[in-house]
Amino acid sequence: MNKLIRIAVITMLVLSTALSYEASAQNRRQPRRDQSYSQNKKEFREGHVWLLTMIQTKPGAGEDYIKSLKSTLRRMDEEAVRQGVMVSYKMLSGMSANSSDWDILLMEEYRDMASLDGIDDRMKPIREKFVGDDEATRGLMQARTGQRTIFGDKLMREIVFD
Q: What is the CATH number of the domain that holds 114?
């Protein structure tokens, strides 16, 4: 009799564990009834893609660097926008927070990630038109090293609230 009671208790424990697991799995598959539609709906969508370049100008070289950007990068970006390669561009300037901070932010806006496929091939004729061949580009970049330090590039996606 004692053995029979143990078997019954073990059977009930196994069955209750199995039923509890099944109920838990079913709750994970179905949304709770008290969840509103807004909790399941995404509150934003992905917008355009931005390529950001953070630059620190060297002391006393800020204005010369910006003039250099105006004569080349600005003209290239405007042509890229005109040709539909890029959506827009922006150049922001501000005070550095400390000696290891950037003070210029270059921003290029693209429709989506796919717009960046083959970007070098599409920008090369534009660059050659305003800067020159690869050797002229290298010369310009070397001249600018005395004016600035590039902290890095960052690719980010715009968040658009619905």
A: 3.30.70.100
